[in-house]
# Entry
Amino acid sequence: MKALVYHGPGQRSWDTVPNPTIQLPTDAIVKIDTATICGSDLHILKGDVPEVKAGTILGHEAVGTIVETGAAVTKFQIGDHVLVSCITSCGSCRFCKEARYGQCTGGGGWIFGHLINGLQAEYARVPFADNSLFKVPSGLTDEQVLFLSDILPTSFEVGVLNGGVRPGDTVAIVGAGPIGLAAVMTAKLYTPGRIIVIDLDDGRLAKAKEFGADVTINNGREDAVKRVFELTGGLGADVAVEAVGVPATFELAAELVRAGGTLANVGVHGKPATLHLEKLWIKDVTITTGLVDTRTIPQLLSLIENGRLDPTVLATHRFSIDEAMEAYDVFADAAKTHALKVVLKGTAVSTETKLKVPTTATA
Ligand code: NAD
Ligand code: ZN
# Structure
């Protein structure tokens, strides 16, 4: 089959690789119908994630069709149309038992395109299929559910829910990339009084307005702290969400939060940030961090099914999956291309790589 393969920092190619096979009875093989690229894939390509070995297929967000199931897979059948969670769950370790799937110690967690081959391919092996796949409700398109693999649950769980957003709150979101914008979308589910989005890029701030931000601040031109305090009667934001992942934005979010408020960090940080405890100790502030668990996928699916949430607005560019190399270029050059999420549509798989669909499930 064909797949997008990482060959070390700065190097990727669209290669011919062996088809995935069932390795454990809890595995399923999925034909990828629709996939997407994440900011983390770019981090990997920069060499920021050294655990990723050269030769690994990238990608952890996709929708597909089951073509083979291991003998122990009981909840899914060949032909099922499924959303693949970016987080795999063994279902039985201490953390999976408390729905903290991101921290799974039983071989799950964030493994796709990281510790095992990922989903930017014609086919993929999904470990712990019963716990890591979700049936796509009939009538919904791949694009409607695709962003539930990672970014919607990330912004919802690690931003909005960890931040404890309540009706009437002022929510300040630092960063208007896909994660910050998904935080705007999912914060709105809780009817905040005001959503303020802060970014350096006017194009992204314009998007934030489209997504429902009430106020946008370009912190390259304007003092964001001053403006947020003016808007909140000198108190600060009830919830500040950090959705960038650099020291400056963590430190900014910590300055924006009111006494008794919450700073919810979503950004992935590669460098230490300064925690100004000398200012924060007296403010009753809560700081949360986290890796997404994707425990809210069923809830988000039902919101989409009922017309309450429409993540398709995040898709700005569409390619066929065999144009993945070009799609990466467009996604990586977001300042110029204005890309948010690029959609990779699976092609009709060439006959020589086509997996033979067994008539009965085999291990
Ligand atoms: P992105 O790079 O597309 O967007 C980041 C935005 O931050 C951009 O719009 C950029 O203009 C803005 N920005 C950069 N520096 C800034 C500054 N100093 N002040 C204000 N704005 C600034 O990234 P994304 O895909 O939206 O992801 C955001 C973060 O979330 C990343 O760090 C990503 O790795 C992380 N993430 C975390 C999890 C998790 O489980 N915690 C999951 C997925 C992604
Ligand atoms: Zn587990």
Remarks:
- Residues 267 and 310 are 23 Å apart (CA to CA).
- Residues 39-40, 150, 154, 158, 174-180, 198-201, 204, 219, 243-246, 248-249, 266-268, 290-292 surround nicotinamide-adenine-dinucleotide (ligand 1) (CB under 6 Å).
